[in-house]
User: Fold these one by one.
Assistant:
Number 1:
Amino acid sequence: MSFTLAIVGRPNVGKSTLFNRLVGRRLALVDDQPGVTRDLREGEAKIADLRFTVIDTAGLEDATDDSLQGRMRRLTERAVEMADACLFVIDARVGVTAVDEIFAEILRRKSATVILAANKCEGRAAEAGLLEAYALGLGEPVRLSAEHGEGMMDLYTLLKPMV
Ligand code: GDP
Ligand code: MG
């Protein structure tokens, strides 16, 4: 069975942009099962010679504020259960938010194997957020710019021993 990486984190940090970059055209399937499963997109990821399955926790964008927190939690828990490791993405331009802390808590409680990623790291606007990311206690964040394709080799180095 193939190694599965779940991309988790609050809306708007760049999860789907990263998913699309990793998957390219190799979007394997969109699950049509009922419930939260339909909000998990699965694809075949490729970085250099690495191949693995990647899951995007989509379907949060259209939730109302009221339903968002419970939905994020259920969806994230489901993704964590399906995955061998989680890529927990924060927005380095915004820094660590209260909602990011909720995700960190879910991952800790689930004893997930976590790779912390600070996205939107292109340019200098990311430096303060990057420092905050260390305070999450999830180790050194890998610096990514999903939009510009930066940090993919660092992600490769982290994933290579796991895949
Ligand atoms: P998701 O809600 O976590 O799936 O986030 P999306 O992938 O939909 O991205 C949210 C917004 O962030 C979009 O406007 C993206 O274009 C933007 N974005 C994603 N990655 C980057 C990045 O590396 N740098 C910058 N500056 N913006 C990004
Ligand atoms: Mg998305």
Number 2:
Amino acid sequence: MSDVVAYEKQGEIALVTIHNPPVNALGQAVRQGLLDGVLQAEADDEVKAIVILGEGRVFIAGADIKEFGKPPTEPFLPDLCGRIEASPKLVIASMHGASLGGGLEVALAAHYRVAVPGAKVGLPEVHLGLLPGAGGTQRMPRLTGVEAALDLITTGRHAGAAEALKIGLIDRIAEGSPRENGIAFAKELLGEGKARRAVSDLPPPAPIDWDAAYEAVLAKGRGQIAPAMCVRAVQASVELPFAEGMKRERDIFMELMQTDQRKGMIHAFFSERAVSNLPELKGVAPRDVSALGVIGGGTMGAGIATAALLAGLQVVMLEMSPEAADAAKGRISGNLQGALKRGKIDQAGFETLTEKALTLATDYAALSDVDLVIEAVFEEMSVKKQVFEKLDAVCKPGAILASNTSYLDVNEIAAATKRPADVIGLHFFSPAHVMKLLEVVVPDATAPDVVATGFALGKRLGKICVRAGVCDGFIGNRILATYRTAADHMVLDGASPYEIDKALTAFGFAMGPFAVADLAGLDIGWAVRKRKREEGIDPRARTTDYPDLICEEGWFGQKTGKGYYIYEAGKRAGIPNPKIMEWIEAERSAKGITPQDFTHEQIVRKYMAAMVNEAAKVVGEGIARRPLDVDMTLLFGYGFPRYWGGPLMWADIVGLPDLLADIERWAEEDPFFWEPAPLLKELVETGRSFDDLNKAA
Ligand code: T1G
């Protein structure tokens, strides 16, 4: 047998065990080993049943995604599944951990399936821009019916063992090890004289209104095509004989394999794992963090405290008065109620977290023994410096002092302490217990193990951590400021905020920039504009006046019921606020601008070019380590459509030369805003892509 698949005989039962860490992915050697194992068992007359199982923490995580994009090698997975199913011996899959994608498809090719109680199953191929390509869309409906199959296949979600049993995906749940369960189930089936049961021989399920299902899934996918194509594959499982259904599935799979969305989503899959694998952290041990201090119990501080409590940390919440501390506790309890409702914690857990794990304090001395403190106080440098001076005085040696600032200079904050090596930025995104992005902002003096601790804490809180250098806005907010300005410029030049929002939701954003601003609160942008005016704005910068007029009316968006949109009570979607266009038209004429028409394509192109150009500057200056770091920041902090993989993967897909040419053309009119990024020019000159930089990092 191969070194990734072991063969063993226990009396009349053959055990074929995959051992391909870390997740038993079905690379070519594993597929060959499985085939050889089945053939070896079939050649042995004493063997009456074959058990397929996985060594390690999962059964099989699926096809080997690292093989995608390379020429397929035999045995092809669909053929292997067909061959397993055709075996004259009884084949049992004994599952544990994750059985996903091709892994579940191998199990569906078996005649019977047994799983441990904690097993998870799923066909998550849509998250890679694909569909199950080894019979999943043909076999699953025969076992579960169309509705349940479409739910799992089009969402890619995982189902637990109990649900899998209920819908007929597995036959048995057993408490033993996969090996024990497989042998016991095989003996039971043999003892009862059970026949082989090829799923493909089962009758096709009842049909549904396929076009309605297709349209509904397409609408839900917000531009993603794979989920809708899954409907057509499942439709084939009902309307065509099995072999023809398999061919239809294969054709759709190969079609999706060629799409940009498959490229973008696989880039996202590997990048969300690679983004926290930093060379400089290799071998650097993080400091232990079990008790966390949080200063400031407003929305951000309460969110951070909630995330820490849910991750099992002790939390000391410091506020300036007992009343403020109680208000903070109220916000945290409210957040935890949400976790309770979603089943993330039970009632006992809720009480433990709020009554035991959380300590309220109003005196800095309460922080003397915590391992790490995160301040989330008012975004004013003088206030931050006072806080850090006090922390420096009371916190134990080795305690890490972190700021949640979203743009202030963390070098300057560190310099206010005697322990700059222990100071770091941990920039959470609101709501901090929900948003997955954490920018780990690294000032010059910060010690490597403090950076490692920031990443370890972020991972423990379930975050996607991105290393950021120190600049105004770090990675995400700096890039946001630029593409948001591009939108404002387009408004001055003739596009309406509402057309821009529509164009970008059609591109794949959940919301356009103006609807997002209404959601976040227009006063936030107002404060940033005031700060930047105080700091001094380059006279070459094109500025817009109408946004301030909206705020001067006290219209801050959803929270005041009016902003770019008017929000009627109880309705999330607003209707355009007519006053806005009046102000915009007045400003255009005051500035002598003749409004031009913008197509949705032109809006997206300009908006994205601004995003890419600033992102290229952020990478070129070393604020972001690699292009993938920017992609993950925009995906997990700013709602960038995942099926593009991120703005710099989008740029690679659409082509850097033409993008640079557009930017250079726009720079002729506005050389200050559209100054081409040196890195973008260098990549175009050398014929490289942003992804080439990721691979070289
Ligand atoms: N192929 C290759 N590498 C994989 C992999 C896969 N399928 N799954 C995980 N890895 C790597 C991952 O990149 C990481 O590598 C390491 O394993 C640990 O992963 C024909 C076409 C199984 C739930 O989409 O959901 O089958 O960073 O950190 O948190 O129909 O991995 O250490 O170098 O995520 O314990 C369908 C994807 C494939 C499942 C475990 N299957 N994987 O989570 O570990 S397409 C999937 C996961 C397919 C067929 C189709 C998770 C996990 P590194 P990890 P984890």
